[in-house]
Write a structure and sequence with these properties.
Strand content: 5-15%
Oligomer: single chain
Radius of gyration: 26 Å
Strand order of the largest sheet: 1-10-9-8-7-6-5-2
CATH architecture of one domain: Alpha-Beta Barrel
Helix content: 40-55%
Largest sheet: 8 strands, parallel
CATH topology of one domain: TIM Barrel
Number of helices: 27
Number of strands: 21
Distance between the termini: 75 Å
């Protein structure tokens, strides 16, 4: 039989109710009781919706107040000592302090969830901590759905191996011992679920797709044997996703009732493994057949043929059809997206529509005489019509064909052009700057809405933006920041804004997805050839520059980040799309330079997150992404300084690629990751200009002058002061204005104190 299983559902609600509730609570606009009530309502409505659509195995415990990895860490007592001893379920104050920090306590590190734009809170291991089951969140979720809705659900739990692999604070040789110590707690949690009558649990082990699992596979097999022996009445679906699994032959011998595989992103590898090694007839096969990370309809005919082929070839106990991963990574529903082109609309499938596709697939597969042929063929027709929307753009194609190797190189190397830039810019040693954005106030957001509704005309809106830019140029002058920014008040999002100004993009009304915490983004859709039409940022940047004698940075989002943070067409390679975007940005950079802008920042925070999960594919990826960046930036004069910015990634994996970007200055998130990158730089100094973030912008706390001074001095132990810049970790749009002014004032004061020391040395 074919059943439908969902791996996870978007938390945010159709209208971002989740985000609004979180932020209202943080701002003390609602009580804790009201917060809990609204979150419960959203949680249960999502479960009910999935059940009513016909999903056989509805997930629970995929809902969280902030992050599912943080949930697991607090559940098993992995709370850093600086937050005090925790012997019961953490208060909301403590829980959110772990994620966001507090007045006196630094938050836990945050980084990207595998190769997605979702950020998780990194667990911190401490030898002095005792792992213990403080509360059983999946049990609470299961009991709530059963009591309130009468629905037996499938708890989703982070796998013990993946959890420890995601954590930091231990040596590699300690890993297996840590897992063994945590095992009793994990089993206790599962036993409580078994006692409650839970039939199936989904244990997520995405780390099984990475090469690192090879050295641990026999140990992990033993761990799962202990787990299964301890809970004989509990059926375990061992779920993998994002790629083909490593060590498939060993994995299918694990003591579990089912194994879930990704047949979208890991299709070729997983199919090849099945051909070579088969699949156990006593296990359920979870077939991740719908793309959980993109927004297009499924080619149902192709999926039906694949599933029938699997049924005939391996004859599993049962077969579950499901998304390739949690639907956390796609918007909730397309139902209100009436503004997009009709052909495009018909080709879209968000979370709810993907679940409906699964229902249709199940009906076809379970009933050989079904009369669903029209619905199945219509899906194919929609995809064909979408492709026909994209008529070949000969102008862009001819420009790309005309590119030569010289278009990927600056005229002279860094060591020759940096002195020319210093002569022009006349900056002090250890110059201060920010990453780009300033707080998006309620007034600015309201003005933008009024402008889009036609209440404000273009001139009125532009004048409001100019007033805000002038206000913050004046603030930066008063703080005495050396290199300024215009604040990006005209921008909703660093990717959406550029997509709105380029051809080839479509935009949605409510297609929001979670990025980190309450931060939601609305990715644009790339469905046609990307083309530059007119300057995008020149007016705002030039106006800001006219208000000050200090340099104002031109602020652009890089080609790889625009690509990775958009929903993209699937008939071209990522490299081809990235080059189209790079060509458009090249023209924008030229326009900024012609307008007299001497520093241009091209942000690429998404390069590391897009790194393939298989290391054998890294070189090919890093080659084309660095070339796309250089295609965008290499046409400038030697005196024009190119900056870039990256955040919340493991940079040591890609330092060679960062160097290959040939940017004059890079600013990197550093404070929140506990200055981990400094350890790498102590062994391999960075050869260009660099700014290591001196304070964490994702926390409301304002660090003292002394704290930032200490961070700067620490960084200067591994960085050349002649090429070191001082900046926050990231953009400041999510903070409030008072926090930003206080923090930047302290940052500049700390820079001046350190500058006095180094002026006497150099």
């Amino acid at each position: 039989m074919v059943y439908i299983s969902n791996l996870g559902y978007p938390r945010i609600g159709e209208n971002r109710e989740w985000k609004k509730t979180l932020e209202s609570f943080w701002q003390k606009k609602i009580s804790e009781q009201q917060f809990e009530k609204e979150m419960k309502s959203l949680r249960l409505s999502s479960i009910k919706k999935q059940h009513e659509k016909g999903i056989d195995l509805v997930p629970v415990n995929d809902f969280t107040y902030y992050d599912h990895v943080l949930d697991f860490a607090t559940m098993v007592g992995w709370v850093p000592n600086r937050f005090g001893e925790i012997n019961e379920k953490p208060s909301l104050e403590t829980y959110f302090a772990l994620a966001r920090g507090s007045k006196n306590i630094v938050a836990c590190e945050m980084t990207k969830w595998f190769n997605t734009n979702y950020h998780y809170i990194v667990p911190e291991y401490n030898k002095d901590q005792q792992s213990k089951l403080i509360y059983n969140k999946p049990l609470e979720a299961y009991k709530e759905a059963k009591a309130e809705l009468g629905i037996k659900t499938k708890p989703v739990i982070l796998g013990i191996y993946t959890f420890v692999q995601l954590a930091k604070g231990y040596k590699k040789e300690e890993k297996q011992g840590i897992i063994s110590k945590l095992l009793n707690v994990y089993i206790q949690m599962l036993k409580e679920l078994e006692s409650e009558g839970v039939e199936w649990v989904q244990i997520d082990e995405p780390f099984f797709v990475l090469e690192e699992v090879r050295e641990d596979i026999n140990f992990i097999k033993g761990i799962y044997k202990e787990i299964s022996s301890a809970v004989p009445s509990l059926s375990i679906m061992l779920q993998t996703y994002f790629e083909a699994v490593e060590q498939y032959k060993e994995l299918i011998s694990f003591s579990v009732s089912g194994i879930g595989l990704d047949f979208v992103h890991g299709k070729e590898g997983n199919l090849q493994s099945i051909i070579e090694h088969g699949f156990p007839t006593d296990k359920v096969l979870g077939v991740g057949i719908l793309n959980g990370r993109n927004i297009w309809r499924n080619d149902l005919n192709e999926s039906i043929n694949l599933i029938k082929s699997l049924q005939n070839q391996i004859k599993p106990n049962d077969l579950w059809i499901q998304p390739s991963c949690s639907l956390l990574h796609v918007p909730v529903t397309k139902i209100e997206e009436e503004l997009v082109d009709a052909t495009l609309f018909e080709a879209l499938a968000f979370a709810d529509e993907k679940l409906e596709e699964l229902v249709l697939l199940k009906n076809v597969l379970n009933d050989p005489n079904s009369s669903y042929e029209n619905e199945v063929n219509y899906a194919k027709k929609c995809l064909i019509n979408l492709k026909q929307l994209n008529e070949e753009n000969k102008t862009v194609q001819n420009e790309l064909k005309a590119i030569n190797e010289g278009d990927f190189k600056r005229p002279v190397p860094f060591h020759l052009r940096y002195p020319l830039q210093n002569k022009l810019l006349k900056l002090p040693i250890l110059p201060t700057t920010t990453i780009g954005s300033f707080p998006q106030t309620k007034e600015i957001k309201q003005a933008r809405q009024q402008w889009r509704k036609g209440v404000l005309n273009d001139t009125e809106y532009e004048n409001l933006i100019k007033l805000k830019m002038k206000e913050w140029i004046d603030i930066q002058e008063s703080i005495d920041i050396d290199v300024m920014v215009h604040g990006e008040y005209e921008r909703t999002d660093m990717v959406e804004y550029f997509g709105e100004k380029l051809k080839g993009f479509a935009f949605t009304k409510k297609a929001w997805v979670q990025s980190y915490g309450s931060r939601c983004v609305k990715p644009p859709i790339i469905y046609r050839t990307v083309e530059f039409t007119k300057p995008i940022t020149v007016n705002e940047t030039s106006y800001a520059q006219s208000l000050t004698s200090k340099p104002v940075k031109g602020m652009l989002t890089g080609p790889v980040t625009i690509l990775n943070w958009s929903f993209i067409r699937e008939d071209l390679s990522k490299e081809e799309i990235a080059n189209e975007i790079a060509l458009a940005l090249r023209k924008e950079i030229r326009a900024l330079e012609e307008a007299g802008i001497s520093i241009i920042q091209v942000d690429e925070p998404a390069i590391r997150e897009g790194l393939p999960l298989k290391k054998e594919e890294w070189n090919q990826y890093l080659n084309w992404v660095t070339r796309a960046f250089r295609l965008a930036t290499s046409s400038v004069q030697n005196e024009t300084q190119i900056h870039t910015h990256m955040c919340y990634s493991n940079f040591s994996d890609i330092v060679d690629a960062i160097i290959a970007l040939d940017a004059d200055v890079i600013s990197i998130e550093h404070a929140r990751s506990h200055q981990e990158f400094s350890n790498y730089l102590s062994e391999s100094p960075y050869p260009f200009g660099i700014g290591l973030g001196v304070y964490d912008i994702h926390s409301p706390r304002v660090p003292s002058v002394e704290e930032m001074e200490e961070n700067i001095l620490s960084s200067l132990k591994v960085c050349d002061p002649k090429r070191f810049w001082i900046n926050p970790d990231c953009g400041l749009k999510t903070r409030n204005e008072t926090e930003v002014i206080d923090a930047l004032s302290n940052m500049v004061k700390s820079a001046k104190k350190v500058r006095e020391i180094y002026y006497s040395i150099i």
